[in-house]
Amino acid sequence: MREDKLAERSMEFAVQIIELTKTLRMRKEFIMANQIGRSGTSIGANIREVHYAQSRDDFVSKLEIALKEANETDYWLELLFRTGYLPDQQFRQLRAQCAELRVLLIASCRTAKQKPHS
Prior knowledge:
Blueprint: H1 2-26, H2 30-50, H3 56-82, H4 88-114
Helix pairs in contact: 1-2, 1-4, 2-3, 3-4
């Protein structure tokens, strides 16, 4: 159940990140557009890969990579906000979604690590 919620939330977040990158590119801000585009969409890509993990370690590793990407995305969101490329309301909305993904990822990692080996 948690992975389905993660997959859906990460897809919704990725769509919003892509919309943000389009806006940034129209404003000729290509470097940060590329950076946040990569990290923001990588979260969901790694969550999707979890479904085909070859082992529990692989499963946890992919979740942890998604978590790292979410943390990097949060950095880019803050930088975009501080440099005036991201308005306050949009920053708060995207940052809250990113934080929610991190919370879900941390919980999923903990759960996966606690399960006995099969």
